Amino acid sequence: MNYLSEQQASTETDPMISSRNETVSLEALKMNKEYINNNVSNFISNDNEQKSNSKIWSLFEENILYKDENHTNINKEKLSWRSIIGSMSHIDNIYRQDNFMKNFQRLKFLLILIDSIFRGISQVMFANNPLSGIIITIGLFIGNWELTLYAILGTTCSTITAHLFDFNYNSIRTGLYGYNGCLTGMAMAYFTFSKSPQIIPFVIIMSIFSTIFYEAISKILVHRLGIPPFTFSFQVSSWIWLLGALKYRYYFINGNILNPTLLTKVVDKPQLLNI
Question: Mapped to the 3 state alphabet, what secondary structure does 209-233 carry?
C-alpha cells in the first residue's frame, strides 16, 4: 500500500480525525458560500447600478442633450443670414421639427399658411421667398391699396382651397397655387370699374376655381406633356369673369381694356359697294 491509501485507511479507522475533517470542510463550505453570496450581491448591485446609470444617461441624452441640440439648431437657423435668402429652406426645416410649437398646432398651421400666402405673392415675380412676398405686398399697397387687398384675398382663398383638397404639399408651400389666386383677384378688381365689396364673393369663387383648374390642367400638361401650366389657370379664371360680367348689368368692365360689344349680337357686314 502506498502513502495515500495508508492515510485514507487511518482516517477511516480513526473517528476523531474524520470528525475534525468534516468540521473543517463545513467551515470551508460556509466561508465559500459567504464569499460567493457577497460576490453575487456585489455583481448584482453593480449591474443594477450600471443599468440605472445607463437609463439616467439615456434620459439625459433624450431630454437634455438632444433637446438642447435641437434648440441650438433652431436658434442658429433663426439667427443665420442664410435663412432669409433663396427659398428660405431653413424655415421649412424648422416647421418640420416635432418639437416646434408642439402644443400649438393651430398656431403652427396659421404660421405655415401665412408663409405660403406670401410665397404665392412672391411667385408672381418668379420668387419663392416669403420675405420677397412681403416686399411686393408693400409695393402694391403703396401703388394701389385696393388691388393689394384683393391680391391677398385671392391668394388666401386659393391657398386654403389647396389645403382643404389636400393637393400637393410641396406645391402649396412653394406658392404655386397661391399666385394664380393672387393674379385672379387683382385682375377682377382692375378690369372692373367699381371696386366695391360686391365683387368679393366672386373673387373668392374664382380664386377657388383657379386652384382646382390649376390642379386639373397640371395633370395634363405636367404629367403627360412635361409643360408647366404657369399662369394659364389665372387667364382662364379671369376670362370667365370678364366674359360673364359683360352680360351682367351690375358690373361694369373697363371699355378701354375690353370691348363691351364683344358678346353682342353679330352685326351684318356692311355692303361696301353701296357706300
Answer: HHHHHHHHHHHHHHHHHCCCCCCHH
Cα–Cα–Cα angle for 197, 160, 224, rounded to 5 degrees: 115
C-alpha span between 167 and 161 (Å, rounded): 9
**Region class of 226: left (phi > 0), else alpha (psi between -120 and 50), else beta:** left
pLDDT digits (tens, 9 = 90+) for 146-158: 899 999 999 999 9
Q: Residue 233 carries which side chain, given as an amino acid letter?
A: S
Predicted structure pTM score: 0.62
Name the more confident of 214 and 80: 214
Give residue-wise pLDDT tens across range 230-249.
899 999 999 888 888 777 76
Residues 90-119, mean pLDDT to the nearest whole number: 82
